[in-house]
Amino acid sequence: MGGKEVPLLAILLCSYAVFTTAQSQQKHKRSIELSAAHQLISDVRLPTDFTPLSYVLDLRPSLENSTFAGTVKINISCEQQTNKIALHSHFDMKIVVADIKIKRLKTNGTTDEELAEKIEIQRANRMPKKPIYQIFLKSPLKKGALLELHIEFSGVIWETAEGLFKGSYSDGNGDRRYYLATHTRPNNARRLFPCFDEPGFKVPFTVSISRPKNYTTLFNVRVQSTVEMDDDYEIDSFETTPPMSTISFGFVISQLTQLNATTESPLLKPIVRIWARDDYHDELKDVFEKVEKVLTYLRNYWDEDYPLCKLDIVALPAGFSSLKPVDNWGLIVFKESDLSNQGYYLLAQELAYQWLGSWVTPQWWSDAHLNKALAGFLAASAALEIDNGQEFDGKWPMTTLYSVYYEFSKRYPHSRITGLKQETTCTKTELVLRMLNYTIGAETFKKGLRKFFSEGECSTFVGENVWKALTEQAHADKTLPNSVTVNEIVESWIFKDRLPVVTVSRKYSTQTAIATQKVYLRERPHDVPEQDKMLWWIPLVVVSEDKLNFQNTTPSTWLNKVRDVQLNGLPAADKYIIVNPEEIGPFPVNYDAENWNLLSNYLQTDEGRKKIPTYTRAKLLHDAWNLAYAGDLSFATAFNMTLFMKFERDHIVWNPVFTLIDHIGAHIDMSSVHKKFQTYVRILLTPLYEELGPYAQPNEEKWKDNLRSLARLFLCQAGYRPCIEEAQAAYKKWMDIENPDDGNPVSNQYICPVFKWGTQEEWEFGLQRVINFPSSRKQSERTYLLKCLVSCPMQSSKIERLLNITILEENGNFTENDIFLEFNMLSGGSNGYLTLFNFLSDNWDVIRQRFENKTNLWDNLIGSATGVFTTQEGYDMVSELYVQRQGEFGSAEHIIEKSLRHIKEETKWSDENLPIIEKWLDNYLANANTLESKFSG
């Protein structure tokens, strides 16, 4: 594989065989589509009348004019009788009909001498509103005809990273340098040349590209020859590529220079080269070593050498606007900051694509997410092995997993945003791959992927190809029953925009339990359609206190798309069990109250915290709180699960605590319970913060400073006196300087505590800084100040003053965007939205008149002022306003009606949970042995 020469005729034949085989697969196999359609790609698939067999492409870009011209010869095969050829061409591309030529080929892979008669063209045009160019023939072609299609074209070079784009940077002498680069994903090759721009068309390319003489062109494959064109330009001809898709096509024309290799590894020499501007070389000096480590990992994983003849890695300077690296075949383009990043994950992901993203290519975009998930899984595995997880601070996959839990447990996941849906679906697929790696065994999983890779070499795939290879290997290794297929398991997870929750109810007298699955729903009401019909294949891995073995990830049994199953052989009644330890599968687990109490008591012992691993401790805490929030567990039990945190010092276990403090605190902050909850937070966090100390220590781990910052943030919000005093002391330095509008010497972490707990004078000083903010400073600093002025104060009078200034007095220093920001920030806490509601009620006529022609502002105001109440008192207030002002809400009528429905649901939550929370807090605070009064605000 690695760099072997293949004759052009053989490549053509391989290409044709691969594509016809893939077409046949599509007719008989159903891909597991990760979304019904890849909706971010606005595209219409080409007719199946023709198959491309090869491209011969000549490109002549002009740096000076930001244009390009070219010719392309495409060998194509007629798959069914037709008189029309359709291919992709962007709207901005110019094609002269008179220059289109079509010749019939006598044989596949023919030479020029064997070209037969010319095919006559009747007309050619672009389809209306579609990037498809149609060529109509005077006579129909028969199935099996082989043609050479010759097209001349021209186009523009873009400033954004689409198709062929142009960028610039200043070199070490301050001179302006330019570069050209391509970004053909997902369907931008059509911006560069007329083509069959679909990932399933994999054919060889023979390419020549012109460039200024003092520039270098890097392409997918190596330069074969260079010819001088004139005084200023040369043209490079490149080796013929192996069969590849248009998404893999790419080149860079620049004056970047090659780094000297820092390692003599035979793995890197001579195939890997790194390119950057001269004065950035030192920043990339360790990249060779990182590439070597990642390639070694991937080569060992696949048991295959790097599959291409070379690899150029390019660090593009400022101006490269693509958010992500561009993973062309044999040519990866990074932003400088991404390539100099100290971690391994991003680099490993792009190198994994050289096997997965290019060599084995998705047949269509519905399977591109599987490709991304595989690359992400391999990249995470590589990074974890190479640097022992330091890059992730030990958080992978917990942080990712928690975000997926939150998203899929909403009433409306993804907020109906297509891009977010595709990202979370891909992340979920990666977590399912991780689950399979555990449950069928890492070695079986790896051998199954190798099988898929070797069978798919020089090919395209659909999702079923991956699952079939894994199934065959798992059956051969006897890690999966012969009656079960990986396809069945995966299909139950990928097709749903939901995740399950498993509830384990123990029968202590018989040492058994019933495990039941249902849809995991966190937001109320739990009225998701057809939730009773949703079932998953769920692996149940069980650990018991009398047999603590967290290395065994083989399921005791599967919930094989049934509602419940019995677990046998459980320990005695005084011993706990844990299901799904280490988050083997992406699902939370609930237990009966007694098992939760056994876990809580065990975690409060030194032995318990040592024997239960970090991820499992975090899972238990995270699951308990979220299940309570969802209404599936008593908050008394959830709070009990936090008792061991006074001994816990691992940041991975603490991470979910901060999220949950935030969620619960926001939900109850209008109630009388909130003050008790703040006291609880201070007692919980003070020992941790004091042990970490207020300042970072030399050479301490990064996670410690992150943990310190989070502890300080939540302590400040809860009224921790040392924090408030520290913030006020820092803020006073700003108040005392002669020209406070020239700059802010105060760290952002101190602003909110001062505005929340500080004096009216301190808040007024901040208000004046916003009003007098000079245009010469970064506006983001003003925005942050304004956000804090609005959202942080405890006193309603501060918020009322700001609302008076900006809305009633219409102070010219505040824009409509500022007012939008105020409304949004005020919806974040009860003091804010209650003050806003009262302000609206008291000044209804004036505000209504002022906003009657500003629908967006009015709608935003009504939503922010009425939509976040959580108690019966709040419901009564909003309901009274609705009745009093019936018919006056205009465009916001549906918004306040929605608010009332929402508050009714939240009131149910409050009625059910606040008494339980308050009772637990009363008992806890009465028994707490603490100097709390010392720290209260």
Automatic annotation (TrEMBL):
One of its GO terms (cellular component) is plasma membrane. Its cofactor is Zn(2+). Residues 288-493 form the Peptidase M1 membrane alanine aminopeptidase domain. SUPFAM superfamilies: Leukotriene A4 hydrolase N-terminal domain, Metalloproteases ('zincins'), catalytic domain. CDD domains: M1_APN-Q_like. Its EC number is 3.4.11.-. Its main location: membrane. The active site is at E350 (proton acceptor). It is an enzyme of class 3 (hydrolase). It is a lipid-anchor; GPI-anchor. One of its GO terms (molecular function) is zinc ion binding. It is found in: Cell membrane. GO terms for biological process: proteolysis. Residues 576-904 form the ERAP1-like C-terminal domain. It holds the Pfam family ERAP1_C. Binds 1 zinc ion per subunit. Residues 1-22 form the signal peptide. Residues 52-246 form the Aminopeptidase N-like N-terminal domain. Gene3D superfamilies: 1.25.50.20, 2.60.40.1910, Neutral Protease Domain 2 (1.10.390.10), tricorn interacting facor f3 domain (2.60.40.1730). InterPro entries: Aminopeptidase_N-like_N, Aminopeptidase_N-like_N_sf, ERAP1-like_C_dom, M1_APN-typ, Peptidase_M1, Peptidase_M1_aminopeptidases, Peptidase_M1_dom, Peptidase_M4/M1_CTD_sf. It comes from the Eukaryota. Keywords: Aminopeptidase, Glycoprotein, GPI-anchor, Hydrolase, Lipoprotein, Membrane, Metal-binding, Metalloprotease, Protease, Signal, Zinc. Belongs to the peptidase M1 family. This is Aminopeptidase. It comes from Pseudolycoriella hygida. The lineage of its organism: Eukaryota, Metazoa, Ecdysozoa, Arthropoda, Hexapoda. The gene is ANPEP_3.
